[in-house]
Amino acid sequence: MSIHKTGSAVWQGGLKDGKGTVSTQSGVIQDVPYSFAKRFEGEAGSNPEELIGAAHASCYSMALSMILGEAGLTAERIATEAKVTLAEVEGGFAITAIHLDTVAKIPDADDAAFQDAANKAKEGCPVSKLFNAEITLSAKLEG
């Protein structure tokens, strides 16, 4: 089985003075502006790294839910943030690391089982498999 989804971008102009928009097939993200300043200079707005972070956090959370379900557990809530590091390396820029920070509320779960599931999700998430970057995780079980 194969699933195909699309994202698209339109760019106009040079690197520093140009601007672009990014959209998704579903239309949830539609013509959202991005630019050099938004990516590298802290100007408010979207950029590729935050979109990658959102994609990774959502994929990871779903993978964790699946692994917990296989263990007979259902999370009331899984909240994940993916911190994407874009660094200058030899030959240009690269995404060198992604740190996943997840907090989950799971009735009747013990921390050892949760940590095991959290690490399996980090390794097994399809988006994790995409990156040639160090992926780290901190996972906390609530209450």
From TrEMBL:
<protein>
    <submittedName>
        <fullName>Osmotically inducible protein OsmC</fullName>
    </submittedName>
</protein>
<dbReference type="GO" id="GO:0006979">
    <property type="term" value="P:response to oxidative stress"/>
</dbReference>
<dbReference type="GO" id="GO:0004601">
    <property type="term" value="F:peroxidase activity"/>
</dbReference>
<dbReference type="InterPro" id="IPR052707">
    <property type="entry name" value="OsmC_Ohr_Peroxiredoxin"/>
</dbReference>
<dbReference type="InterPro" id="IPR019904">
    <property type="entry name" value="Peroxiredoxin_OsmC"/>
</dbReference>
<dbReference type="InterPro" id="IPR036102">
    <property type="entry name" value="OsmC/Ohrsf"/>
</dbReference>
<dbReference type="InterPro" id="IPR015946">
    <property type="entry name" value="KH_dom-like_a/b"/>
</dbReference>
<dbReference type="Pfam" id="PF02566">
    <property type="entry name" value="OsmC"/>
</dbReference>
<dbReference type="InterPro" id="IPR003718">
    <property type="entry name" value="OsmC/Ohr_fam"/>
</dbReference>
